[in-house]
Every structure is written in C-alpha cells, then in structure tokens.
C-alpha cells in the first residue's frame, strides 16, 4: 500500500532538488539559492549554493519579528543548582546580539573558529547562536573531556577565542573548568587570543588579562551585533567526534542545508508545532545537543529545555517526570541509557505515578541500540509511543525512524523503523552489492546525502573521502552493520569499526589503546567494549607487559585507568583492565578484538579460521573470568 511516507520518500530520492527546494521555503533567505543541489564535485555535494542566510536570524530574530518575542525560547532547569529560569525569544535575541557584539569586539569575525567548553547552562546556547550570528564557526567540546582532548581540538581548529564557564556541576560535584582549560591551552601549540569566562556563583575563576575576559562585563560593554549574511555553504560549526584513532574527526556542518533539514524534521519526524516544548535531555557537547537542544527547536519556534542534571540522583529518578509536568513538555528525546538508569532505581515506576505527564505525546530514543526491555518499560509506564531512531554525529539528524508527522508505522522492537525522506539506505556486501533482505551487511547511504549532513572533515578532505566514501563507491559508509527486513525496516546491530557506545557517548577504543600503550610497562594492548547493564557498553583493556616488568599488576592497572581519565577524560568510563600474557591474533598479526568481545560477553563464537594460536583464547577467557566476565563453558 502506498501511503504518504512512500510518496515523500520516493520524491526525495528521485527529485531531491524539488523536495528540499520546497522545504527551504520554511527558512528566511537573504538571497535565494542559485542551485538547490550542486553535484559537480562528488563526493562533495553542496546544498543551496549561491544562497545567503543567517542561522541565528532564523533561530531567534525572525520569531521576535513574527510576534513570538514573549514566548519562552529556553527554559533552564537545573536541579543541581536549584534554578529554573525562563528566557523569552526577545531576551534571547538581546543576550545573543550583545554577546556576539562582545565577541566581535574581541576580534572574532566571519569564518573564525570559537571553541565553547561549557556546562549545561543557557549561556552555552547563547554562545553558539552568537557565533552563528557573526558567521563565526563554533566548536563545542563536551565538559567530560580532559585537557589533553581539548588541546587536540584547539590545535586542529585554531580558535581565535575560547568561551567557557567558571565551573560545571556534575550531580553533587562542582568541577572548576578554567584550570582544565588553562592546562589545555598550555599543552596546545595554538594559543587563542582570548578566553571569555562566564562566572557562575559556585566558583569564581581567576582571570588573567589581557587574554582572559569576563563574559558579563564584556557583554554589558558591547554594542549588539546584527546578523551577518553567510553563504548557505559556509560552515556553521565543527563538532569533533571519535574516529578510529586518538585524532578525532572534525565534522563540518553548513548553514543552509542544516537550517532547512532541521526545521523539516521538527514537523515530519517529531510532529511538533511551533510554540510547543521540546526537550532533548542530552548535552550541548554532543550532536543531539547541537541539533535538538539548540538549533532545531529554535528554528521551529519551540521552547527548548536546557537541563543541568542527571536522570537519577538529581535528586531522584523522578526528575524527568517533574520536568515534563512543570514545563509541559510535548516530546522528550534522550538515550536509552537514561531510561535504564531510571528503571534500575525505580523498577516499578512508582515516581511516574506522582506526576501529571499528560502533555507528553512521544518519547524519542537514539544514540545507541534500544533494548526491547527498556522500550517496553517506557511504553508501559509513560503510555506514549516510544520511538527509536538512528543517527550519527556525521548525519546531524535521523537517518531512519518512525516519521511521526508523516505516517506512523507499527513499532518493531529492535528496529529504528524506515529510512526518512532524503535517505536512500542500502545494505551492502563487501563487493558493493546489495544483500538480500534480512541478511546482515554494511548499512550505507547512496549519495548524495540529504542537506544538513557533514560537508567534510575540518582540514581533512582526504580523511573524509577515505573514511566515508571509499570502501563502498557511490555510497556513504555509516560504519554500522545491520539489516533491512522485508517491510523495509532498518535494524542497526553493531559498529564495523572500533567505536563503542558508553552511556550513549561515542568513544574510540583505538584512542584508548593509544593511551594505554603510552604506559612505560605496556608492550601491547587491546581495548574492547563489553556489555554493561546500565551504560550499554563499557571499555575493557587487555595489557601485555614488557619483558622483565615485575611490578604489581594491580598497581599497573590502576595507573592505566588513571591515564585514560587524565588524557581522554572521565567520560571514557575506563575502569576495567587486566594483564594477560599474550593477545589472540590472526596469522597476519591482527588482534582478534571481536572474538575477545564475544568471549567476555559469554556469547557463542566461531573459532576464527585465521587464528594463529587458538590456545590464547582459553587464556583470555580465564583471565576474564577472574574479573567476572566470560562465563565458563562458552569456549
Ligand atoms: N563534565 C564533566 N564530567 C562529566 C560530564 C561533564 N559534562 N559528563 C559526565 N562526566 C563524568 C561523570 O561525572 C562520570 O565521572 P565519574 O567517573 O567521576 O563518576 C564520568 O564522566 C562518566 O559519565 P557517564 O558515563 O555519563 O556516567 P554517570 O554515572 O555519570 O551517568 C547516566 C550515567 C546513564 C545517568 C548518564 O550517562 C546519562 O544520563 N546518559 C543519558 C543522556 C545522554 O547524555 N546521552 C548522550 C547522547 S543523547
Ligand atoms: P554519535 O555519533 O555519537 O551519535 O553515535 C553514532 C552511533 O551510535 C551510530 O553509528 C550507531 O552505532 C549508534 N546509534 C545511534 N543511534 C542508534 C540507534 N537508534 N540504534 C542503534 N544504534 C544507534
């Protein structure tokens, strides 16, 4: 049966220019585009070439001009500081224009990079929008990354200025940010001209002029800045994400395609109307935070929630329900791990019953595979549709999902439903041919990608081509394996590279291996992701020590755990490592990480035909049993 979805999806693939050209009418353009889609230089496809716009104008000013000035743009809800604050669209315009003026006064202009190292406070969103207002390119770095990771991003993006706050508040911990930022700048070759600090009442950061500038003073003294026209194809932001090595990939997003695509998703994927309250319980440091805390809800004229807290412990597992009731949230978007955390502390959902959740229409989950147990628990207790949708930092919005504003498909547990309009999703074998329906393969997207997706990697066009566009010519390689069933439902099963997903956070095991191998006693190492009831996966390291090392293994393990925390950050959640005599390898020397993961998770596995010495697998199994993994009997 052909429904509205089939019609829209077909049109988006056969006539992308017509489809997205229509969608682009929802955005204010200073100058319309010459061409909707420019495919003259594949695989670097460009959307809305020749068009001029300003993303901040579309997210903020236009709503004030259209009479939404008194509507809440941001509700800041911070149980950790006991604060609830509403910022209207008029106030957001004024604050953003002033802060943009302050940045301009510090020399920031169109095309300059600005790193934002911010906790979940409204100033993080204001800073993002202020950069967009000036045509400067922001790069938000998640607060849970250590100075070393921040330094890598400073060196790669070479920011003119860095914006930070005096501290973050993580549950009951107050974390001063400025010392971490100072350490990062110390470690990096590039030095920003200025550091702008938003002083929070919990901690006062020490400012050393003339480099360091106080946010409040600079904003008060600044003339408000107007929106600067930028090309649709000018970068709006760089967001670094884990690749296969310790060098993160700087995903570059444009202005025009991004605004068009994100606005479109609010109606079609999320079924949200302007004026409604949309809550993405994530962090501005992740892509979900960029797209669905900051840009999409504001482009659509919604109220967005900036929540500074955790699903549990701030103060209890009822905090999500309290926020929904208090602010009349229409849609909640979070990662399954948040629900696993709540379910673990309140399995019978006693706290759900204490709140009025009648405003909530839909729960959206993404960031990692949704386990059916969690999905059922959420459905049974919230009594709203629970929609799994699949996407990546690179894509900026969902590749597949249940398009609530187009046609609502039956939920199949374990599937992120169907490819959204714009996405020509195929499941391929290694020869670039489509596999049969139901067979596992590399989930790939036929080019061109729709608007709003990555344009390239910052300063790394070749890495972009090699990472995503080479192994499957003509397609974007998602790095995810899975299958498509007879009804066209997409199932994402696992990554095909060494990326793991810890509490919905994307991490590179390769990056952790680089840190472990830097330890003076470690000759060789491997890091895998093992199943974890709460976080989905957690990293586990195997260490082979250098000949002659006789130090206590427990001490070495403690040291490598600390190293990962110091160099990557607490967000890596690296707490487990064991010392083994040897690592299992193929005859050509490739470490059999996949087999080790199956052994650790007590899954059945086939002995790899190319294994060099099968005995090593028993040694690995025994070592894992020593820390409670690899139930006996599976080898
Ligand atoms: N700044 C500084 N440190 C941070 C941080 C931040 N912004 N975010 C996390 N950390 C720290 C945590 O405090 C923790 O430190 P610890 O080792 O000292 O305890 C460590 O990084 C690991 O964090 P996390 O993996 O998030 O574990 P957690 O126990 O603090 O919380 C969950 C677990 C499931 C409650 C939490 O991860 C969560 O709510 N996740 C779902 C929402 C989400 O963020 N999704 C992301 C994409 S949609
Ligand atoms: P990130 O770039 O941090 O958004 O992580 C993207 C990766 O998370 C994807 O490549 C998938 O491996 C995984 N992922 C995201 N959403 C889903 C989902 N709904 N189902 C399964 N895996 C997902």
TrEMBL record:
Q: Which Pfam families match?
A: ACAS_N (PF16177), AMP-binding (PF00501), AMP-binding_C (PF13193)
Residues forming coiled coils: none
What is stated as this protein's family in its record?
Answer: Belongs to the ATP-dependent AMP-binding enzyme family.
The record places domain AMP-dependent synthetase/ligase at 66-446
Q: Which residues form the AMP-binding enzyme C-terminal domain?
A: 512-590
Give all residue intervals belonging to the Acetyl-coenzyme A synthetase N-terminal domain.
5-59
Q: What is this protein called?
A: Acyl-CoA synthetase
A GO term for molecular function:
propionate-CoA ligase activity
Looking at the UniProt entry, the stretches that span the membrane are none
Q: Which GO terms describe its cellular component?
A: intracellular organelle lumen
PANTHER family linked: ACYL-COA SYNTHETASE, ACYL-COA SYNTHETASE SHORT-CHAIN FAMILY MEMBER 3, MITOCHONDRIAL
Q: Which InterPro entries match?
A: ACAS_N (IPR032387), AMP-bd_C (IPR025110), AMP-bd_C_sf (IPR045851), AMP-binding_CS (IPR020845), AMP-dep_synth/lig_dom (IPR000873), ANL_N_sf (IPR042099)
């Amino acid at each position: 049966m052909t429904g509205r979805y089939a019609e829209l999806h077909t049109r988006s693939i056969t006539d992308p220019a017509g489809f997205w050209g229509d969608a682009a009418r929802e955005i204010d353009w200073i100058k319309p585009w010459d061409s909707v889609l420019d495919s003259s230089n594949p695989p670097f496809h460009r959307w809305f070439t020749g068009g001029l716009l300003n993303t901040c104008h579309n997210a903020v000013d236009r709503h004030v001009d259209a009479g939404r000035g008194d509507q809440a743009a941001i509700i800041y809800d911070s149980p950790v500081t006991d604060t609830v604050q509403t910022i209207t669209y008029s106030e957001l315009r004024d604050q953003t224009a002033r802060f943009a003026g302050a940045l301009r006064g510090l020399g920031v202009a169109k095309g300059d990079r600005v790193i934002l190292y911010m906790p979940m406070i409204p100033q993080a969103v204001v800073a993002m929008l202020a950069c967009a207002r000036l045509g400067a390119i922001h790069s938000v770095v998640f607060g849970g990354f250590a100075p070393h990771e921040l330094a890598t991003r400073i060196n790669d993006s070479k920011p003119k200025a860095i914006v930070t706050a005096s501290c973050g508040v993580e549950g009951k911990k107050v974390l001063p940010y400025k010392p971490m930022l100072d350490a990062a700048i110390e470690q990096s070759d590039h030095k920003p001209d200025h550091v702008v600090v938003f002083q929070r009442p919990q901690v006062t950061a020490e400012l050393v002029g003339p480099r360091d500038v106080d946010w409040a003073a600079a904003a008060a003294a600044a003339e408000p800045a107007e929106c600067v026209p930028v090309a649709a194809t000018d970068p709006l932001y760089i967001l670094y994400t884990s690749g296969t090595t310790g060098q993160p990939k700087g995903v570059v997003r444009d202005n025009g395609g991004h605004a068009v695509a994100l606005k479109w998703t609010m109606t079609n994927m999320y079924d949200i109307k302007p004026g409604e309250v949309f809550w993405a319980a994530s962090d501005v440091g992740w892509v979900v935070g960029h797209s669905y805390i900051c840009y999409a809800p504001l482009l659509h004229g919604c109220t967005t929630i900036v929540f500074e807290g955790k699903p549990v412990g701030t103060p209890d597992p009822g905090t999500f329900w309290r926020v929904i009731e208090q602010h009349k949230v229409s849609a909640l978007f979070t990662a399954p791990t948040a629900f696993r955390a709540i379910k673990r502390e309140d399995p019978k959902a006693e706290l759900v019953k204490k709140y009025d959740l009648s405003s909530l229409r839909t729960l959206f989950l993404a960031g990692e595979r949704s386990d059916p147990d969690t999905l059922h628990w959420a459905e049974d207790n919230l009594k709203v549709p629970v929609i799994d949708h699949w996407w990546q930092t690179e894509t900026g919005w969902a590749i597949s999902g249940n398009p609530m504003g187009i046609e609502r498909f039956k939920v199949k547990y374990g599937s992120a439903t169907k490819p959204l309009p714009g996405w020509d999703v195929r499941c391929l074998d290694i020869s670039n041919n489509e596999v049969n329906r139901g067979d596992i393969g590399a989930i790939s997207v036929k080019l061109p990608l729709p608007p709003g997706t990555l344009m390239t990697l910052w300063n790394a066009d070749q890495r972009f081509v090699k990472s995503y566009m080479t192994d499957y010519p003509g397609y974007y390689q998602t790095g995810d394996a899975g299958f498509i069933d007879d009804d066209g439902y997409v199932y994402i099963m696992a990554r095909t590279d060494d990326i793991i997903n810890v509490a919905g956070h994307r991490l590179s095991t390769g990056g952790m291996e680089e840190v472990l191998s830097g330890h003076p006693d470690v000759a060789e190492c491997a890091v895998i992701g093992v199943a974890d009831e709460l976080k989905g996966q957690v990293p586990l390291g195997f260490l082979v020590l250098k000949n002659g090392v006789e130090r206590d293994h427990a001490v070495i393990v403690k040291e490598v755990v600390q190293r990962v925390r110091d160099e990557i950050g607490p967000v890596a959640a690296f707490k487990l490592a064991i010392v083994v005599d040897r690592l299992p390898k193929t005859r050509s020397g490739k470490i059999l990480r996949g087999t080790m993961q199956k052994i650790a998770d007590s899954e059945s596995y086939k002995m790899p035909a190319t294994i060099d010495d099968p005995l090593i697998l028993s040694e690995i199994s025994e070592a894992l049993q020593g820390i409670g993994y690899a139930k006996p009997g599976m080898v």
